[in-house]
Amino acid sequence: MLLLFCVLFGYIYIYIFRIRKKLQFLLVYYSSGGLLAYADSNTNGAKSISVQCQNETQKKKVVVLGTGWASTSFLKDLDISSYDVQVVSPRNYFAFTPLLPSVTCGTVEARSIVEPVRNIIKKRNGEIKFWEAECLKIDPENKKVLCRSNIDENLAGSNEFCLDFDYLVIAIGAQVNTFDTPGVLEHCLFLKEVEDAQRIRRTVIDCFEKAVLPELTEEERKTNLHFVIVGGGPTGVEFAAELHDFIHEDLVKIYPSVKDLVSITLIQSGDHILNTFDERISSFAEQKFQRDGIEVLTGHRVMSVSQRMINMKTRSKGEDISIPHGMVVWSTGVGTRPVVKDFMEQIGQGNRRVLATDEWLKVKGLDDIYALGDCATVDQKKIMASSFNSFMFTSILILQEDISAIFKAADKDNSGTLTIEEFIDVVEDVVIRYPQVELHLKSKHLFEVTDLLKDVDGSDREEIDIEGFKLALSHVDKQTKSLPATAQVAVQQGAYLSMCFNKREKCKSEPEGPRKFRSGGRHEFRPFRYRHLGQFAPLGGEQAAAELPGDWVSMGRSTQWLWYSIYASKQVSWRTRFLVIGDWGRRFIFGRDSSRI
Amino acid sequence: MLLLFCVLFGYIYIYIFRIRKKLQFLLVYYSSGGLLAYADSNTNGAKSISVQCQNETQKKKVVVLGTGWASTSFLKDLDISSYDVQVVSPRNYFAFTPLLPSVTCGTVEARSIVEPVRNIIKKRNGEIKFWEAECLKIDPENKKVLCRSNIDENLAGSNEFCLDFDYLVIAIGAQVNTFDTPGVLEHCLFLKEVEDAQRIRRTVIDCFEKAVLPELTEEERKTNLHFVIVGGGPTGVEFAAELHDFIHEDLVKIYPSVKDLVSITLIQSGDHILNTFDERISSFAEQKFQRDGIEVLTGHRVMSVSQRMINMKTRSKGEDISIPHGMVVWSTGVGTRPVVKDFMEQIGQGNRRVLATDEWLKVKGLDDIYALGDCATVDQKKIMASSFNSFMFTSILILQEDISAIFKAADKDNSGTLTIEEFIDVVEDVVIRYPQVELHLKSKHLFEVTDLLKDVDGSDREEIDIEGFKLALSHVDKQTKSLPATAQVAVQQGAYLSMCFNKREKCKSEPEGPRKFRSGGRHEFRPFRYRHLGQFAPLGGEQAAAELPGDWVSMGRSTQWLWYSIYASKQVSWRTRFLVIGDWGRRFIFGRDSSRI
């Protein structure tokens, strides 16, 4: 046995040692998408340093807050030859958050889904600086951010510092939204950070260890083994499924005495779980959960949570219901972080729920501050309503409607009516500037924008006046939707913003955005446009549901395989990819670990 | 890329799914060392339950405290058909403690070295019960232990419970020994539990993250990056080596700005580090550390530790030295846990440092309570000194010496002198009962016990009187040594005790132990005898030193390979074995992770 290991290990050791260098090289190659000019940077070392110093004085300072999806996606493609970049975040790692529900039950280990930020930015030749600290205050007037490290005070040196910026990118994500429900912060667990997932894992084990102790009544054991999930969105549903699998595949085997006392309840205020998904997926999930014995309480609103009870009201009859619980996981919506709230008050957005940006991801009313990911929302300009402009404690109501400006700009001969030709001349810019127009056409099954100008009978018109124009576009704004708080949106926003940053100089002279109808000229960049690539909902028992591009819906075992493949390929590094796949394999063979660490 | 993953994963999935059952079967086979009679237990289910119930009333209750090396080794081989076993421990897992230093730096993950206790006892057909709780009080008079679960009070049911026992096995290990040095508990990290190792890992990253923050002076950065280890034993030395590797192989690459400010200091009160090892190993380690830039301060005694400073005194000149630190890891000796301290006071061992047992691992003066592993020490009976017997608050000093009793028992003809024949008749029992005799012979390079009876000139004697006999054995007791607090001792003790438990009934009628010289008759069992199998000291940089059986000493790279093989083969389950080997492989390819989680 020993000898076998000795020999085996010796071989593996030698082999790995030999191919290590080669592998590292390959990994760098793959990760960065091409060969890095290593030799180059070495031979011209002295020269490049002097060039760098010269550049640095001219470089604009970019401060990025956060190390989540939006921020890493922004940093990945940013051309650092023209910017001096500093990143601030209390987490020195990037976490692959879609796998958090898997971490709660040990299907995947916490370390397998995180990648140190310094590893990510190291690939950019060390020119990006990272500080592990929390941003306490954003000062848009003086262009400064105040930061404080969360590290224990017992290390030498001050924990606070200030950073100047020319451009600020706010991508600090969101915090949990309790909707001010009493007792939630004190008695519920959440699923936003890696630590949350680890805490849930420990608590599940605690509930079982407590339930099997001697001298407990059957009722007490049942209470401790009642797991409640509040929120029927993708995260809540995936967690419920993972928990069910963990309990029924692993825990009942080692806690056989209490296996019949376990129950899982999923509470959803709406009529269906997964209500952002296609109806077929939603009902497939509900049926699967029913078969699995997961109780789904739709139309129930949680009123308060106490140490041992969760209190609800049914939406239909207004009845009050209280059920005892061992653990409650709260997974409903996103809330604004205090530093963003404070910033919003400073810039006159205090009465809004979420920080608003324009379609170029610029914070409304500010010039050099951008916000992306879960901490902000793109406030899509309406074509009909009067626009509202706010800047630094002052707000000016501009009464002029966008549609009038468009009409005026299009009506070149000032005839008071638009011909089809005149309309076609502006239509591309209109579609780029107001994406709701395209969505409206799609919803009405129209193929050409000019179809909008047809009269009520559907016949073509030669000309249209301002009232007719308004009537034609009157329902367009209904199609403005705020983007979901998902990794997909954040990644696309990050990539979009880095592209804007990279061609900032070029686009100053050669603007590529749509026409400014009111002030004339063109926007520098095309506005951000979100492209939905579909979404997954793993439902446990090796089954998943997915909405795929082109309105495809896929459900069952094969979808779970697709999920495995996509999630493996989307990993941020080869290291995490190997680890995650290794974890899946380990789970298949050995099951999930139930040690309370 | 995606397709590749899809296909690859599909294949792996199917393959694993097919061989899963087979694998699980094989693992059970390997782990338990043979096939379990699964089919048997199923077909005769009803019958076996009734038999079981009948048995249970007759079964003696054994309570085992602890889930460390001693306890799991005891449980592994215990014949549970004759005992009703309950295990109590605040940790629901067994930890492979020799790999803790590797966990501190992420060479191996914490989860890879732990195995749930329930997995270990599951293999015993679920007849062993486990409670995750801490033992608060041992009541030897009423044969009860009071336990309390450490789980948060917010779960339903009482956390306290009482267990009755017929036999109690105390194997709860030791806690850290601060030698009452001020500030150690508050400002130092330890290396006894898995959580300690995880805390060290986070702290090392904290020190680096803090040191690179802006607005710190060079002095402050240096202070934060000064890592101090107190204690030059195997654990302290291995940790220093691991830390050095972690810093120089991984951290300096991602914190390049501070790489020249890092320092590691190892403080040892004795003259050499690794002073329980062979001198060659000790000096090899010192030389290696010197080359690596690890400062070794021998002959320094730590007087106190404060938030930023560690204060020492040199042993030679009595000078006071204070050095600033970023982190101190305290790794010196073992101390007694409060519950054991309290128990010792109850049984009149209050003035002792460690709980004392006899050579049969029975707590001195008690009949049915055993103690093994780090929480106890075997008080080797001396052949010359007067024996001291204590029982429940009363102590009786027996003035008669063992050697006189031996002489009396051997002198069958009551002639007042022993002939060689008479001596040979008792010698086997003497050697078994007093292992120091054999050690003495070895140290004097004597081959036969009868050589002891030779006169001062080395000539054989026909007869020997009581004074001559005492003179011959006068130096024997110098060879009694207390056993080291290692996993090896604990495992051997656990295995020994389970063997005693298994043949308790048989040995009552057919005692197999040595002769009782004073009271006549025989001891039921042979006393516990420790067999030293050697020890390792990994020194970093793929080098290790080892003392092997037969006084062999091995140092260098090949020893590290041997270390890998032995540590892999010694893993408690196939799961941890695969995980640990996987972790080593991952470290070779990708390095260690520096995410602060």
UniProtKB/TrEMBL annotation, chains A, B:
Reaction catalysis annotation: a quinone + NADH + H(+) = a quinol + NAD(+); a ubiquinone + NADH + H(+) = a ubiquinol + NAD(+)
Domain EF-hand span(s) in chain numbering: 398-433
Signal peptide as annotated in the record: none
Top-rank taxon: Eukaryota
Membrane topology: Peripheral membrane protein
Sequence similarity: Belongs to the NADH dehydrogenase family.
Protein name in the entry: NADH:ubiquinone reductase (non-electrogenic)
Source species of the chain: Penstemon davidsonii
